[in-house]
Amino acid sequence: MPPKRTTMPMTERKRMFVRRSILVAALLLAACGAPPSLRTVSGSLKTTYWLDDGSKITVSSPPPNGQMVTAILIPDGIAAGYTIIPITLDSNQGFMVSNVPEGPYFLQLDSARYEFCQGCPGPPPYDHRAEVVFTQLIELRADSPDLNYVTAGRLDVVASGPNQMWVIHLEVSGLAPWVVGDPLTPWVPGDSVATTSSQASHYGNFAPTSIPPGSTVAGGNWFSFGGLPDASKHDVLFAYQLSTSTVADGSSAGTVAASSRFARLTDLTMTPSTSNVNVTLTNSAPQTGEVPADIRYSQFAALAPLVHPTAVPSGFGAYVSVWAVPHSVEYPDTPGPFERTSVFQLANVPAPVTDVNYGTLHYGEFLDPLWKTYRTVRYAFDTQIPFDAYVGGGSITSKVPMPAEPGPMVPVLGPPTQPRIEGRDAFADQNGVGLQPVITWSPPTLGQPTSYQITISRQTQPVIVGETRVISAIIYSGRIFKLPPGFLRQGSQYTAKISARLAPWDTFDHAVFREGVPFHTADCVTGIFSP
After folding, report:
1. So where are the chain's domains?
2. For the whole model, what pTM was predicted?
3. Which residues, 6+ apart, have CB-to-CB distance to 299 below 8 Å?
4. DSSP secondary structure string for all residues of 424-440
């Protein structure tokens, strides 16, 4: 007698049928190239105000630094390359965009900039500055990207507008004997005076009128960005002198500007109608800040051919600097990119091609404990590209928290390699690339980038008021970028800078408006191209 056949319960048979149906449907969809699922992308812009006493308040706010959130660009297979969905912020500084396919998209941020316009109306002999648009594209995947911004300033600070500054006459006494810079090399500093206030979000520089060497008093225009200090709000403003000296000699000579004399002011109140301020520097800063300065410049110089075939170490120099930031230099808590002040700089002009070791250099430490510091090394290059003065010939930059790890300063990241536009060598000048060319590149020979940034600039003069003059994209998903429609113009010339970026926090969908250190970048620059 054959064995009795067992029957699977009805509920289990139904489950198996459903699972098989789903699997078959998935296979059929994959075979037919089914479109990706759609989702809603939403965002809410906020600012966190982090005060000197450690308290924080977060409120809905417009984008920082005069930026505007204007659109989402979705890469697709159509001829234009992108589906562009405009964004309008609601009264709570939020937005919601439906029917966005799964996968990467670009968030578009626009801001105003001012470019020199050759031939535009303006008081001769100076070229007129024309307002243009700078477009920033940031590649994201998140349904709800983090759009929170951090500032050390007060919510109620009286601030200058974007691309604006306060100009006030400042009289300073109590200076260390003044050292005058070389007028023939203005990029090599003489003494200077800086001002900073974390809560007032104030960062200023003093441009004194002619001062004789050795003077201990100075007067001139005081240019300050950000806010105005208010004693009733417990704002603290530091005014301090950067004193210059020379280290080494010959081809290894460098100029050091280090914080020296300072004043800590708790009783200064300024308003938009303030026209004159008198400050006395009352204290000498203890020279306890240390910068071990063993710099392997030869390794930076060796990267020149990767920046551009014509690149050479820059006549404008290489720099090591120390910057102070309120509260934190680490992601995600570092305040905005303009909230920092320099307390040390070593300038080597022109950029050296051989290694130097200055031992340990010093600067004054005088800021309150809430201030943190990081070190920047920047090695610049010049090229024979006709627009080099506007493009900038590319640079290798490293930012690390202080105190830095022991060892010499060396490049951490190299430039992207083999840039191509429409399949052609982008180092060479190229005509007829079309209005939406595809630009590609290969990885650096040094380091492992976490992202890339490509910046394309229109170089043709005159500037057209209101035009999008520069477009820049931060890319995480690959090494390719197709220009969106409407940017390139027939009859115009363009250049591109492609930057490799490396940081532990620099990942897909990190907070859009926040950065930190360490952070390393390396540039290559293209030749001229036109549609």
Report:
1. 40-145+422-505
2. 0.90
3. 410, 411
4. EETTS-B----SS-EEE
